[in-house]
Amino acid sequence: MLIAERERLTERFALMQSELGGLFYEMAIRDHVRLEVLLPKAAALQRVDSELAQVEHLLNTTDATIGGRCPSCNAVFARGSAFCSQCARPLDP
Hints:
This protein is mostly helical. It is built from two helices and two strands; from the N terminus they run ααββ.
């Protein structure tokens, strides 16, 4: 389950990174860079990167078990987590 999640997130990250880079390039060659367009996309990419890092951590920990998914943002969390690392929502024990 976690391996499939890692693959999904890796593909999503690569696509988002490519799109952001392409968008910036197109804006730059037209000398019309708009940060108000780029920053939300960079923030979304950072959230995916953070979730991917969390899944990687769970996979690399020998006794790691997934606690579940946040009902608010669907991020993976480790067993025993009190709050979601993505949206800070309190998690049920």
